[in-house]
Structures are given as structure tokens and as C-alpha cells.
Specification:
307 residues, mainly alpha, 13 helices, elongated, disordered N terminus, TPR-like_helical_dom_sf, TPR-repeat-containing protein
Length: 307
């Protein structure tokens, strides 16, 4: 990947202060989805994660702790020992973790589990979200613990995928996000999945994802996020002009406002700079900095570098 790819994801601008609180998996272009769970390619500052909103599918019903009589077949040799060892190695949960801090829709999805297990999963998910910014490796351990306890619940798989993504574990992230998408339906976190392909050094596969049937199901904001990732993939391949064209299709506007517009303006400036169109890049970095109310972008620093 280029040393300064287009600013994609890797930080959650889910404005409103709930940080990386897990939400129900995205199942198709609707809801309050601010999908920023991802790998932001800008340097410095807070990284941005994602939000999920969607509908639970029947595939989620029946958590990993279902009574044995409901299982479809015999357990493999060593299953109980393996599960016990995993639980013994789980990171500790602070006493003050309140499951009510979790999104109510997520709590609803966890009701397929026994109460004790659902509470443990909820607490691990809360800790994963809480730690994702400052300690992504520990956050990933909590997310894995939640997934191991609730492997058939889509939001647990998605949380694991997001945490793996934030920790730079691209292969694991991609696998978990694919699993969550299969369970919940819809396009899933397509922009994050595409960015994982970039992280794995496969920018063409990221571009291919943008041409998939699932990409057509994305809502407007999610299309912006995917385009930003695809522009970054083009830059990874040394195709600055193609990156510019990708972003121009979204009609970047110097009169635009809002977090999504700020990220789009930044990505557009980045592509212009890579193409040697310095004066235009400066104009767009200036605009991105102006409308970046949360201070999530390093547009001012990029502008100074070009001056």
C-alpha cells in the first residue's frame, strides 16, 4: 500500500459520543449506519470505526451455547476442552461494565444465548468497543472472546471483524466480516472489507468488491465510504487519475459540510496531490480542514506540507 493512501476508515465518526459501541450488523443500505469501522489511511489523530444497523436473520438464532440436544451432530473430539481453555484465557472483565451500555438491538440479538453467556458476551463487546482506540490488541482479545461464546450471532462476528481490522489483522477481519454478512444478509461492511483487501496487498480485489451486486445495495453514505477506499486502492496501484475520476463521480463540492463531506474532500485532495495537481489539492485540503468540526483529519498538516 502507498505510504499515504486515501483516507478511508479506521476511525469511528459515529458522532454522538458512543464511540465504538457495537450495533446490530448492517443488512442493507438503511438505518442510522455511520459505517466507520475502518482503517483510516490518514496519518495521526483518532481512527474511525463503523456503525451497523440492520435486521436479524434466522441464521443468528441459536447461539453457540445451545443445549446439546439441539445440535445438528456430534461434537468433535476435544470440543469441551477447547472451549474451556478458551474461556480460561479470556481477558478479565471489570466489575463496573454495564450491559445496558450496549445498543438495545444488540442485546435483543444476544437473547438467543443463555442469560449468563449473553451477559458475558455483551460485556466483552463493550470492552472491545471501549478499548479499540487506545489498546486495539486487548480490544481484539475481548472481541474474540465474544465471538467464541456467540459464534452464531452475526453482531459478535462483526465486532470481531471490526476489532481485527483496527488491530491490523486484515485476514481475520475479512473472514469475520464475511461471516457476519452471510448471517445477517445485505452488503455488510463492504468498505471495510475492501480496505482489508488493500491491507492484504490486493487492491484489485478491493476494486472488484465495488463492482459486486452487494455494492448496489449500499446507502448514499456507505457509497461515499466505499469510493474513498477504492480511490485509495487506485493510488496503491499508481493510478492517481483513476482515483480522481472515482471520487469525481460523487460530485465533491467546496460548499459541502458534514463529516462524510470532509472525508470525501480529504480523499479528493489526496488524489489530486498524488497526481501532481498541487494547487487544486491545497484548495480541497483547506476545505476538508474547514468542515472537519471533530478534528479527525490531518488536512491542515497536509496543507502545510504542500505549501
Amino acid at each position: 500500500m502507498s505510504d499515504r493512501p486515501s483516507r478511508d476508515h479506521r476511525s469511528d465518526d459515529r458522532r454522538g459520543g458512543d464511540g465504538h459501541r457495537p450495533r446490530r450488523p448492517h443488512s442493507g443500505g438503511r438505518g442510522d449506519r455511520n459505517e466507520r469501522n475502518g482503517r483510516n489511511d490518514r496519518r495521526g489523530r483518532n481512527d474511525r470505526q463503523d456503525r451497523q444497523g440492520g435486521q436479524r436473520s434466522h441464521a443468528q438464532r441459536g447461539g453457540s451455547d445451545r443445549p446439546e440436544k439441539f445440535r445438528s451432530g456430534p461434537q468433535r473430539s476435544g470440543f469441551r476442552e477447547e472451549r474451556l481453555n478458551k474461556r480460561l484465557s479470556e481477558p478479565d472483565l471489570p466489575d463496573d461494565v454495564d450491559i445496558n451500555d450496549l445498543d438495545p438491538l444488540v442485546l435483543q440479538d444476544l437473547r438467543v444465548l443463555s442469560k449468563d453467556n449473553a451477559d458475558a458476551v455483551a460485556k466483552h463487546m463493550i470492552m472491545a468497543a471501549t478499548l479499540m482506540e487506545d489498546d486495539p490488541q486487548l480490544a481484539l482479545r475481548h472481541a474474540r472472546a465474544a465471538k467464541d461464546r456467540a459464534g452464531r450471532v452475526a453482531v459478535a462476528r462483526e465486532t470481531n471483524g471490526i476489532a481485527a481490522y483496527r488491530a491490523g489483522e486484515w485476514k481475520e477481519a475479512l473472514s469475520e466480516l464475511r461471516a457476519a454478512r452471510r448471517m445477517s444478509g445485505g452488503p455488510g461492511l463492504l468498505a471495510v472489507m475492501a480496505d482489508c483487501e488493500r491491507g492484504l496487498g490486493r487492491p484489485q480485489k478491493a476494486i472488484d468488491l465495488s463492482r459486486s451486486e452487494e455494492a448496489r445495495e449500499l446507502d448514499a453514505e456507505s457509497r461515499v465510504e466505499l469510493a474513498i477506499v477504492i480511490a485509495g486502492a487506485r493510488l496503491d496501484m499508481g493510478q492517481a487519475e483513476s482515483a480522481i475520476v472515482t471520487l469525481q463521480r460523487l460530485n465533491p463540492d467546496l460548499n459541502s459540510t458534514g463529516p462524510s463531506a470532509a472525508r470525501l474532500s480529504y480523499a479528493y485532495a489526496d488524489a489530486l496531490a498524488a497526481a501532481g495537481r498541487t494547487e487544486e489539492a491545497k484548495e480541497w485540503f483547506r476545505h476538508a480542514d474547514k468542515i472537519d468540526e471533530d478534528g479527525m483529519l490531518d488536512a491542515a498538516e497536509r496543507l502545510n506540507e504542500l505549501s
